[in-house]
C-alpha cells in the first residue's frame, strides 16, 4: 500500500501540487490521470523520491518515506519497479543483460541465479528464447515487454508505469495492459500507472485519481468515473470519440 497525505510541492512561486491525499491499495492497478501540466509527473517523482515535497507525507506500507535516512530509503527503492515511457533499455546490452541489470546492481546472486531469474521474467512476458537479441532487433511492443520483465525481476512490492502504452498500436497496447493487470494480481503488488490512454483506464484501472491544476479533483472507480457529473473530469475523459461513443452506449 502507498499512502500520500497532504502533499504539496512548489518550484519558486509556482505551486504545482496543492494538498494532495490518497491511498493506493495492494493488488490493484491505481491510475493517475490528468491533462499535461496538471502535476502528474511531479507527483510521481515525489512518490519515488526524485523530488522532496514541501509538506506532507508519503508512506510505503506504513513507513514514512520522506524523512528516512538514505540507506533506509534505498531499501524501499529496491522494492520499487519502474516501467518508463520510452522503455529505457540499454542499446549495447542484450535482452537478457537488460533484464538482469537490476540484479547485478542490487543483489549478490551468482550469474547462474541471475540468468535463471531473468529467464523466469522473460517467460512471463512471453519472450523466452529472445535472450541474445539486442533491443534494436526487437519491436516496440517487445521492448515494452522486456522493460516489464526488468521491472519485476527484483520481485518488487510496488510498480510504477509511466505512459506504458505510449507509441504502441491498439492491439499491442491491450497486450501490455493485460500483462500489467495480471502481474499486479499474481505478485500482489501496488501498481501505479500514469496514463492519458482512456482505453487503458477503462480496461485495467481499479482505482483512479484525477489531477486538475495541481489538486486531486476527483477519485473513484472506473464505474464511478463513467457516471460522474464532475465537469472537469468529464471534459477530460470524453475528449475522444471512442469515449463519447462509450458514454452514449452506457446512457
The CATH topology of the largest domain is given as Rossmann fold
SS content category: alpha/beta
CATH class of the largest domain: Alpha Beta
Give the low-confidence spans: none
What are the secondary-structure elements, in order, as H or E?
Answer: EEEHEEHEHHHEHEHEEHHH
What is the mean predicted local confidence, pLDDT?
92
Tell me about the biggest sheet?
6 strands, mixed
Report helical residue fraction: 40-55%
User: Count the helices. How many?
Assistant: 10
What coarse outline follows from CA principal-axis ratios?
globular
The named CATH superfamily of the largest domain? P-loop containing nucleotide triphosphate hydrolases
Strand order of the largest sheet: 6-7-8-3-9-10
Q: Give the total of beta strands.
A: 10
Distance between the termini: 35 Å
Account of the 3D structure:
- With 251 residues, the protein is α/β, with parallel strands linked by helices.
- It has two domains: 1-79 and 158-221, P-loop containing nucleotide triphosphate hydrolases (Rossmann fold, 3-Layer(aba) Sandwich), CATH 3.40.50.300; 90-155, no CATH class.
- Helices cover 42% and strands 24% of the residues.
- The protein contains ten helices and ten strands.
- It has helices at residues 40-48, 70-78, 95-106, 111-124, 140-152, 170-187, 198-204, 222-227, 231-237, 241-250, and strands at residues 2-11, 14-24, 29-33, 55-60, 63-64, 80-83, 158-162, 190-194, 207-212, 215-220.
- The strands form two sheets. It has a six-stranded mixed β-sheet with strand order 6-7-8-3-9-10. The protein has a four-stranded antiparallel β-sheet with strand order 2-1-4-5, with helices on one face.
- α3 crosses α4, α3 (95-106) runs parallel beside α5 and α4 (111-124) packs across α5 (140-152).
- The chain is globular and about 50 Å long.
- The model has no long low-confidence stretch (mean pLDDT 92).
Amino acid at each position: 500500500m502507498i499512502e500520500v497525505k497532504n502533499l504539496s510541492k512548489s518550484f519558486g512561486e509556482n505551486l504545482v501540487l496543492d494538498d494532495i491525499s490518497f491511498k493506493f491499495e495492494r493488488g490493484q492497478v491505481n491510475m493517475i490521470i490528468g491533462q499535461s501540466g496538471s502535476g502528474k509527473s511531479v507527483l510521481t517523482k515525489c512518490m519515488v523520491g526524485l523530488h522532496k515535497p514541501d509538506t506532507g507525507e508519503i508512506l510505503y506500507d506504513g513507513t514514512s518515506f520522506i524523512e528516512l535516512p538514505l540507506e533506509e530509503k534505498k531499501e524501499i527503492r529496491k522494492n520499487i519497479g519502474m516501467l518508463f515511457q520510452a522503455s529505457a533499455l540499454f542499446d549495447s546490452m542484450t535482452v537478457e543483460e537488460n533484464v538482469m541489470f537490476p540484479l547485478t546492481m542490487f543483489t549478490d546472486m551468482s550469474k547462474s541465479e541471475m540468468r535463471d531469474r531473468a529467464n523466469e521474467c522473460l517467460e512471463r512476458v512471453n519472450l523466452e528464447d529472445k535472450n541474445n537479441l539486442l533491443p534494436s532487433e526487437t519491436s516496440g511492443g517487445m521492448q515494452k515487454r522486456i522493460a516489464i520483465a526488468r521491472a519485476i525481476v527484483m520481485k518488487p512490492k510496488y510498480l510504477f508505469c509511466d505512459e506504458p502504452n505510449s507509441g504502441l498500436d491498439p492491439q499491442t497496447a491491450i497486450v501490455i495492459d493485460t500483462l500489467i493487470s495480471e502481474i499486479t494480481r499474481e505478485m500482489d503488488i501496488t501498481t501505479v500507472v500514469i496514463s492519458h490512454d482512456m482505453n487503458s483506464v477503462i480496461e485495467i484501472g481499479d482505482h483512479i485519481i484525477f489531477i486538475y491544476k495541481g489538486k486531486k479533483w476527483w477519485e473513484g472507480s472506473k464505474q464511478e468515473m463513467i457516471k460522474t457529473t464532475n465537469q472537469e473530469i468529464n471534459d477530460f475523459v470524453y475528449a475522444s470519440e471512442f469515449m463519447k461513443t462509450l458514454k452514449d452506449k452506457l446512457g
